[in-house]
Amino acid sequence: MRFTKMHGIGNDYVYVNCLEEKVEDPGRVAKLVSDRHFGIGSDGLILIKPSKNADFEMDMYNADGSRGAMCGNGIRCVAKYVYDYGLTQKTNISIDTKSGVKYLELTIDNGKVSLVKVNMGKPILKASQIPIHSDREQVIRQPIDVEGREYYITGVSMGNPHAVVYMDDIKNLEIERIGPAFEHHPAFPDRINTEFVHVLDRSTVEMRVWERGSGETLACGTGACAVAVASIVNGYTDGEVTVKLLGGDLRVFWDRKEDLVYMTGPAAIVFEGEILL
User: Fold this and answer.
1) How far apart are the C-alpha atoms of 196 and 198, rounded to whole Å?
2) Residue 8 and residue 98: Cα distance in Å, rounded?
3) Which CATH number belongs to the domain containing residue 84 in this structure?
4) Bridge partners for 146 per DSSP
5) What pLDDT shows up at residue 223?
6) What residue ranges of the chain have pLDDT lower than 50?
7) Which residues form a coiled coil (predicted)?
8) I need a labelling partner for 21 at 20 to 30 A (CA). Which of 85, 119, 196, 238 fits?
9) 163 and 110 in a common domain
10) Which long-range contacts (CB under 8 A, 24 or more apart) does 31-38 make?
11) What's the domain count of the chain?
């Protein structure tokens, strides 16, 4: 199987051009290629497919083999792949995902994609649609007991379910311990991605993320969008937010009139290769 390793601010995936390749068991292949000792090393597998509804389709799988609905960093890399490898000459493209069709605007420098702006769609704040078990219609600063400690979460879905937790210190957070406890908490029927956030000022926040099925990653695009929405809803920030992740920065703008979230960030190719399955 031919592949391309790519990353969006450190959130790395193995990409396969399924216009040419065929992947029989993507869940098994995702676990194989994601292993950082015995495989290629990645946060998961992304298949680029033809689509009847859009220019291309993105089919993504987490490192544990489970199928994901949407990946903000991953979709930027798909956009770079299809343009840089000559699958399209368009600089405004549509990509179908399990959470719907997304629309992307490409910035080109010296014939290659350098930045991608993604229309991530409408944020979902209704608890039952995220989904989060709650007696409230929206989960905003709702207390939750995790391993005997009380946290306050704000729930947002950007195609994936997210629980946003604000704290004063995220650098010393024992995320390897607390992340799985959030992920598998009974309040989250489809598991959860958890963002631990420190607000720096009215336009800047920093975050760490524990992604369901992958653990801590250097970046999460849907998570950054969820954090921006949650920060605005809680009154911590204004409409445009720079989200600082371990792998780099993303710019997120929530257009309240259209109720659409836009994310802008880079995408990069690391290397190409072949692997025996």
Assistant:
1) 7
2) 20
3) 3.10.310.10
4) 149
5) 97
6) none
7) none
8) 119
9) no
10) 31/63, 31/64, 31/65, 32/275, 32/277, 33/3, 33/275, 34/62, 34/63, 34/214
11) 2
Q: Are residues 99 and 184 located together in one domain of the fold?
A: no
- Polymer length of the chain: 277
pLDDT at 242: 98
Domain that holds residue 11: 2-118+265-274
Helical H segments across the chain, by residue range: 26-34, 72-84, 175-183, 221-233
Task: State residue 255's pLDDT score.
Answer: 97
160 annotated among ligand-binding-site residues: yes
Q: What's the token pair of residue 202?
A: 């009215």
Active site residues: 71, 220
28 labelled binding-site residue: no
Q: Does residue 185 share a domain with residue 238? A: yes
- Domain identity same for 108 and 160: no
The tokens describing 126, both together, are 């209704």
Q: Are residues 17 and 105 in the same domain?
A: yes
Model pTM? 0.93
Is 212 marked within a binding site? yes
Helix and strand numbers (H, E) in the chain are 4, 18
Residue 110 annotated as part of some ligand binding site: no
**CA dist., res. 225 & res. 241, Å (int):** 9
Please tell me the predicted confidence (pLDDT) of residue 128: 98
Which tokens in the block code for residue 137?
Answer: 């219609």
The letter for the amino acid at 209 is V
Shared domain check, 151 and 205: yes
Write down the pLDDT at residue 224: 98
Q: Are residues 244 and 202 in the same domain?
A: yes
* Residue 73, marked binder: yes
**Token representation of residue 170:** 């995220």
What's the token pair of residue 112? 């290659």
Reference 183, options 162, 158, 156; nearest CA is 162
Residues 136 and 65 in one domain: no
Q: Give the C-alpha separation, 153 to 156, whole Å.
A: 10
